[in-house]
Design goal:
By secondary structure, this protein is an all-alpha fold. Helices cover 80% and strands 0% of the residues. It has helices at 2-20, 27-45, 53-77, 79-85, 96-120, 122-139, 150-175, 182-206, 208-214, 219-223, 225-251, 254-274, 290-308, 312-346. The longest helix has 35 residues, at 312-346.
Length: 347
């Protein structure tokens, strides 16, 4: 009886904590592609991901602290703005002492990680703390780059994608004492930055009405929706595809290309059967390739690795436990499409 009550309370606490730190907004969307980069770098080094497990745990813990800090800092600095825009804010009504305590705790843990990474390599520490600095400048007055047009776009993309991705490459390569080719660094950095820019433009396009109501200056409110979409579609996205394509070519893992074809087929069938056209950048709509980065790409890498290193099959199970929700959505869509096609054939 006691164990049942304790288990129920722990689950309730976990759900409340997940909601408080907005984990559903960043866990799978940001961390699954980050782990994919770790898997890809291990594959480039031609070594087992199983040997990387302690490093992956360290990676997740260090980045989770940063993500929690970002979520709380953003809510804290947006309280009055969210109220004006009619948005909910998790720190609305919370005392300054409470907010200072939890933010201070996050910063203390982040600095401890930063010092540890500096002992491993100054480069690793630079990439790790770079994400913290970028997001602090993004949210915190008087800098508050999120209201400074293009600087806000760059700061968000750097904090959420660029620095964490390069931190991942640096940590994995250091773990195996391997010098990653310069081309891999450049391609990962360009892909991460352009992917981040496209995602923050999507976020601003989706929030443009509320931002204008609250009087918030963003890149989209300053320059307009159409110029922002054109920038994302005709400049940012082609660079993103070229950089990511380079990574796939260097990896030379057939399963990643097969997974890309499978993803393209899924998108094509959604369009044909459900009218859900693949979109490069559109407000409040699923944008192309994100699902591949989150679900198809990491699984393809893990399956490819498991074919050479059997113990890496265990990592697949761990990945499914961590990001099963996103994988289930893609699997359900595929099942519904197959079921619909079979019904048409039967008729």
């Amino acid at each position: 009886m006691f164990q049942s009550v304790l288990s129920s309370r722990l689950r309730y606490f976990g759900r409340q904590l997940k909601t408080f730190v907005r984990a559903s907004e960043w866990w799978g969307y940001k961390f699954s592609p980050l782990l994919a980069t770790a898997y890809a770098t291990a594959s480039l080094i031609d070594t087992s991901i199983w040997l990387l497990l302690p490093c992956l745990l360290l990676l997740l813990l260090a980045l989770t602290v940063g993500a929690v800090y970002v979520s709380l800092l953003n809510d804290w600095t947006d309280r009055s703005i969210d109220a004006a825009a009619g948005k909910s804010n998790r720190l609305a009504g919370k005392s300054t002492a409470f907010t200072s305590l939890i933010l201070g705790l996050c910063v203390s843990i982040g600095l401890a990680f930063g010092f540890y990474f500096y002992a491993l390599s100054p480069t690793i520490s630079l990439w790790y703390l770079g994400a913290w600095i970028a997001y602090t400048l993004y949210s915190l007055p008087p800098f508050r780059l999120k209201t400074k047009g293009v600087w806000g776009v760059l700061a968000d993309a750097a904090g959420a994608h660029f620095f964490p991705q390069l931190f991942t490459v640096a940590l994995v390569s250091s773990w195996f004492d391997y010098t990653v080719p310069t081309g891999w660094w450049w391609a990962t950095g360009i892909w991460a930055l352009t992917c981040g820019i496209r995602n923050i433009l999507w976020h601003q396009l989706s929030d443009v009405a509320a931002d204008r109501q609250a009087g918030i200056d963003t890149f989209v409110t300053d320059f307009g929706e159409r110029p922002a979409q054109r920038l994302g579609q005709w400049v940012v996205f082609p660079l993103e595809v070229l950089a990511f394509g380079f990574l796939l070519v260097v990896l030379a893992r057939p399963l990643t290309l097969a997974a890309l074809l499978g993803y393209a087929g899924l998108e094509a069938m959604r369009w044909k059967l459900w009218g859900q056209r693949p979109l490069v950048l559109a407000p409040n709509q699923r944008i192309v390739l994100n699902e591949y980065y989150i679900t198809f790409y990491p699984l393809a890498l893990l399956l490819s690795q498991a074919g050479r290193y059997p113990l890496d099959g265990t990592v697949i199970l761990l990945h499914l436990l961590l990001f099963g929700g996103h994988i289930v959505v893609s699997a359900q869509n595929a099942y519904q499409i197959v079921n619909q096609l079979l019904r048409r054939l039967i008729r």
